[in-house]
Amino acid sequence: MDGPRFDALTRVLASLSSRRAVTHALAGGAFAALGLAFGDGADAKRKKKRLDVNRFGCVNLGGKCRGNDAHCCSGVCEGKRPKKGRRDRSRCAAHDTGGCLPGQDSCISETFPCGTNGACFQTTGNAGYCSASAGLCADCITDTDCQRVIGAGAACVICSGECPQTGGRGCFLPET
């Protein structure tokens, strides 16, 4: 506190009529300072909750994406941005499923056929994905990573028995 402010505070306290009034003024100031330091909880309501990301750092199929494709493992966020004050209902969506459902994974158990000549695989975002290609081992996290490497519609697939150097991840093209 600088000199003029200290002098002003001293004058205010000296003008109070009793020690009790001085104590009340000092206590009120202390509580006001605490309120400024810790906030009143209103800030907590305004802060956005953190995204629910998986072990790869992206949002799974069906998770909240806040209208941003980049948050989703699939690179696809469906739903328009809400008007101010409205709730965001956008969710991560799958692409090129060819009829594959989440959980149908030809790498783990039986072959799940899809499309005309494809098989179902599981992506890093827990989405079903239909592919007829052998895939390319790649250290991918999102489908967008694979699309940069091998082309449009590609997905980052987890196939535990394959690609040990990339943790079982590889880029696959969609079944056409």
List the main descriptive attributes of the protein structure presented here:
176 residues; alpha+beta; 3-stranded antiparallel β-sheet; 4 helices; 26% helix
Question: Which outline best applies?
Answer: elongated
Largest sheet: 3 strands, antiparallel
Low-confidence stretches: none
Tally of strands: 8
Structure classification? alpha+beta
- Relative strand content: 5-15%
Note the run of SSEs as H and E: HHHEEEEEEHEE
Average pLDDT taken over every residue:
83
Number of helices: 4
Strand order of the largest sheet: 3-4-5
Oligomeric grouping of the chains = single chain
How far apart are the first and last residues' alpha carbons, in Å? Answer: 73 Å
Share of helix among residues?
25-40%
Cα radius of gyration in angstroms: 29 Å
General description of the model:
The structure is a single chain. The chain has 176 residues and is of the alpha+beta class. Among the domains are: 3-43, no CATH class; 113-172, no CATH class. The protein contains four helices and eight strands. It has helices spanning 3-15, 19-38, 42-46, 143-150; strands at 77-78, 91-92, 113-114, 118-122, 128-131, 136-137, 155-158, 169-172. The strands form three sheets. Strands 3-4-5 form a three-stranded antiparallel sheet, with no helix packed on it. The protein has a three-stranded antiparallel sheet with strand order 6-8-7. It has a two-stranded antiparallel sheet with strand order 1-2.
